[in-house]
Design brief:
The complex is a heterodimer of chains A (about 400) and B (about 180).
Chain A (H helix, E strand, L loop, with lengths): L1 H4 L4 H32 L15 H11 L10 H17 L18 H22 L3 H32 L4 H11 L12 H14 L11 H4 L9 H26 L14 H26 L3 H22 L4 H27 L5 H31 L1
Helix pairs in contact in A: 2-3, 2-10, 2-13, 3-10, 4-5, 4-10, 5-6, 6-8, 6-14, 8-10, 8-14, 10-13, 11-12
Chain B lengths: L2 H22 L3 H21 L3 H25 L4 H5 L6 H21 L21 H11 L2 H30 L1
Helix pairs in contact in B: 1-2, 2-3
The chains are: A mainly alpha (about 400), B mainly alpha (about 180).
Amino acid sequence: MEELLSSPYLPPLVATLLIIALFPLVAGYMVLAERKVLADLQVRLGPMRVGPYGALQPLADALKLMLKEDIIPSGADKWVFWMAPVLSTFTALSAFAVLPLSDKFYVADVNIGILFILAMSSIGALGLILGGWSSNSKYSLMGSLRAAAQMVSYEVPLGFATVTGIMCAGTLSMQGIIQAQYERGVWGAFDNYLLMLIPTVLFIIAGTAETNRAPFDLPEAESEIVAGFHTEYSGFRFALYFLAEYAAIFVISGICVTLFFGGWLRPFPNVGFLETPLNVGLPVVLFAAIALACIKGATRQIITGFKLGMFGLAGAALLLAALFAVPVINPLIVGLFWFLAKVAVLVYMFIWYRGTFPRFRYDQLMDVGWKWLIPMSLGGLIVNSIAQMLARS
Amino acid sequence: MSIDSILFYLFAVIILGSAIMTITRRNVVHSAIWLIGALVGVAGLYLLQGAEFLAGVQIIVYIGGITVLFLFVIMLVPVREEALTHRFSSQKWIAVFCSVVVLVILMAFVVHGGGSLEFPTREAPLEPGSLTKNSEEVGYVLFSEYLLPFELASILLLVAIIGAVVMSKTRKSETES
């Protein structure tokens, strides 16, 4: 037992198990958040029936998807049909292994961290392509062909934007990139006299395309090709595709935060007097405000169980606020708080795009990718390397 | 057996098994999938040698780029039936001869260097951060010692890109006229 506890493999193992166990729940609530935010943007209420304000909707959806009949079309290539969603989910979740969730909580800090994530996302594209092909349906095949073309095109600007970020930090290790931003005293996005804003914006655009989100959701454009590559999928396999999609969104946002927005560092990490207001004050006030909102929401609920549930949520938020106020626990969790807060902002922006922009036409998609994003990302790389050279000399 | 040799033989089995499956599958897409297995195995071998940069690039370039393009082309181009039935060409005896020669050479290696089939055990597990900065090393070597071959390869790729653009342009104008 003693040997087991002191083993160097124990913390990564625990972190891995935690991520694999918790992420499906997180993905479920990302779906709920998306539906709620979209509803708000379109002046609707969104899901309201299951739980108070629809708070238990993800659990109901997950249960429904697991109990649904798993249909394999008779003309399908069974073996590939079975493997494709597994491949997507596997690669999307593996990318979490190098994501620096905080200074204390991460699985591994390898010196090819960002290459590993890019490699995993490029294998993930295969899951989409093979899934669409094996369904033996023309809508699915159309979707997977679009997915292949889109991912190959947008991987290039994404790669160039990443390379610019790496060049600025001078290392491929994810923790090293954050450390470099701390030492340079500025977030990656605002480095090199604001020139790094070019790759930041390009990364977000290409990342949206890489995760097949609106306005780049041509592989699953529901108004044209039913549901694209996952038309024939149902039940748990369909859920796996959704899990992979939301994991990919989280990972892309995570890389963006790490490369350009300081990862788990608080804003203005080098300004000493902001330490207490930002690291203690802000989380406490935030969670206390959430608790107040929950209590206010509870008074509007008519069903007693829902009322109690809202009070319970308020209690949990208060507990979190109290945890951030304890000086011993605060440094352990504040990094995770900042990382997740920044990722949440980016995920919100992803939902916002979906509610705002109309879908691209196929030729527009290719034009944007090849004629705009790739030259601009190359230009951004050159301009930033010149700025870096001038600053160094 | 040390963990290194176990991993080596595991990757070797993955590579060889996938390679055999690649050339024997009747379905072209299945062949492409098994090819992915072989390429992942090679990436694993690179990782075992401590060349993690090469392993990452192997996956990005070969699986993310080339195999995706393979699948793209396979899905777009209809495969003729006769191409599926006559998979092995008539040069059977030449193939058998070549295989026997390779087998003899390999057996000679195995007989003479029997001790090298097992990796030496490492005394202590590697400390975190004790590995050399592999990616940086590759960059330094590429841009100092091997600058000329690097630039030649870049020019070759540029020529290929321009050629591809020119070829697709002419075909377009032909269909229009």
